[in-house]
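Two entries, shown back to back:
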Amino acid sequence: MIDAGSAVTYDFLSGKIYKGGNISPGLSMRFRALHRFTGKLPHGSTTDHYPSPGKNTMEAVTAGVIDGLIFEINEYIREFEEKNIDSVIVFTGGDSGYLKDRINYKVIYHPDLVLEGLNHILEYNAKKS
């Protein structure tokens, strides 16, 4: 399961057993960090089209952040599928719609999975009360 939001979480499950996970910064956090923690880099943002490699600072920031996250996601999926032949990748979260067509692997796109799960828990607890 890959949840691409404020942070990107990678959760590895085998059946109903949680095997672990990793967390890295999401797109917005990466853009903000480059701007905030450097002296002069501009604050970039996502865009549908950008040259890569960039020809100026803004293009370089945009391509670096977006391509960097895409490369990261692709590598996590490649490595996981190499070790787990019958794997299924579920892609969710606020940035998943922007990223889903940019990655190189087939995924099940379910943008609101976490919210639906939380609502299910809420409804379940309400019935028990």
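entry 2 starts here
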Amino acid sequence: MRFFPMALSFCAVLFLMGCAQKQQVKKDPDPWEDFNRKVFYFNSGFDHYFMKPFAVGYQAVTPPPVETGVSNFYANLSDFRTAFNNFIQLKFSDGFSDTGRFFVNSTVGIVGLVDVASKMGMKKHNEDFGQTLGRWGVPSGPYVMLPFLGPSTARDGPALIVDYYTAPQTYFVDVVALRNSLWALDFINRRAELISLDAVLQDVAYDKYDLLRDAYLTRREYLVTDGRSQQEKEDDLMLELELLE
């Protein structure tokens, strides 16, 4: 029972850290571009020779209904992490909704293979620990291209560790080989979902590195603020803190 008060204290510290940096002049979001481009080219090669062939083969042998079921299964697991982050962000309504989604789909939806919750009108949200840090005022920091994992930032990269430890498959499966297989299938399934975008990117005349970086940073900012302005986000956050007093 001590976890929740400790989490609130932790979030308050993060919020104060963000406020202290609010007045700083916005800097170049990609000061490590030379290094990031090298990692980008490495990742592109790894994807071309390894991940994409696996994803194409996976799609070729997997019937569409089964592929949909697999995607639903992992989406259901992500609802657990989303609920955790929503509670830490003080989004209690969304947190309870995501918890309900997880239990409904895990039971009635046959371990998440069928998205029953969405059919019942329970909206799906998208939250991770990087967004939680951003909501509490921690700046994104420089853009970082992570080996194998792709686009990230100095804030979102380390947050992946927390995301790993708040993922159900990290704890619910005792057999190491099976747990690793679940993670591998997750990566392959996510790559298979992006195959349709490959043809679009092939025709892009712009620098693909710049396009990916700008798209990632824009989307992360949108997710952190829930599409609201910075002032609206801070006003809502202060109101929620006042309600807890």
